[in-house]
Design brief:
398 residues; mainly alpha; hpI Integrase, Chain A; three-stranded antiparallel β-sheet; two-stranded antiparallel ribbon; 5 strands; globular
Amino acid sequence: MVEIIRKAGLPRPEEVSAGLRAAATAASGVRVREPRPAGFALLFTSHMQLLEPAVAFLHEHAIQRAHTADTVRTYTEILYDWFDALEQSGISWRDADAIDLVAYRNRMLEHPSAHTTRPYSVRTINHRVRGVLRFYAWAVRNGWLHESVLAGQGNNVALAPHARAAKRYTNDLDRCVFLLRQFESLPRPLTSTQARELLAELSTPYDLIARWQLYTGLRVSEALHLKMQDVFTSAASQTTVSASTYRVVDVMRKGRKAGYVIAPTSLLEETAAYRDRHRSAWQNRAVRKRRKPTRTALFLNRRGSSVKKRHYQRVIQRAGQSCGFRATSHLLRSTFGCMMLARLERLAREGATINPLLIVKILMGHEHIDTTDRYLRAVAVDTHALSEVLDSLLSSRR
């Protein structure tokens, strides 16, 4: 069983026994060119042997390429799952071939996730397969392997004859024979009634985070990375779009790209009330309990620490189940995109000289216009309107 051990910081000399103080003092003076930060993932085999190529791969992406923590965590999960599957089958990572990767992919098709107990989605399976192929291409490129079937060009086969005309592929991995055929799903936004029920079911601060997603279209990671100065003291937040209705708030987008959202004044007022009441009270409680409260993050939990992404997502899912419908954090963002695009389309039909698709692309921080186009098609095929039509047809036949 492969294990992940998080790198810890070096202890101070006064924290160790007297016999080790000299070594601790000497260790604190050692300087390395690219130190791995505390919390960096180290992968070990069941015999506690360090998986050096996997750690080197993560080191390059975390330190040298300076990828975000979410990206490095995703790579860590992919490598952990792959090496664990190889170890359980008694296969060396150097000897893994196409048959092993196909078996790994098919296992995810046949068995649910041990972590979530739910079946793997095609998107998740393809994402993990791409991650494995990237790792082997990197291993060959950096001399960890002389050659590998998983790093060759022989597996780059189009999945369908019409694939070239249907989509522009950014790299060969998107045309890999190991990948499953994946169909694009359209967003299905919440109705106004469902959104109100969901917000009423959530407790503080999760209801406020959900409002930020629903009113501004922020990704969950972008919302949770909001800082106090972003909302209350940044110069951008003082820029008024409409004299008394909206404000522009600078945000850090996915991939450390600078961006902004247009936040209603009512949302900012609710955020200010949360800051003055709940947030300050939770910080004071953390101090009384001798815990170190988080100072910069906007959204804190009752312990005074920043809200974690996975916990927030679980809270949203459970609230949706209590309300009787499916709800996810990304669904809140999708609801904003569809509703905003529908309103802008109506304004354009009434004569406004605007490009609705481009406006929503900027507000949602999309890199490609094709991503935003999904919301346009979702608006064109309104599932709620279609259900009403079907109900009326069925009732007329009765």
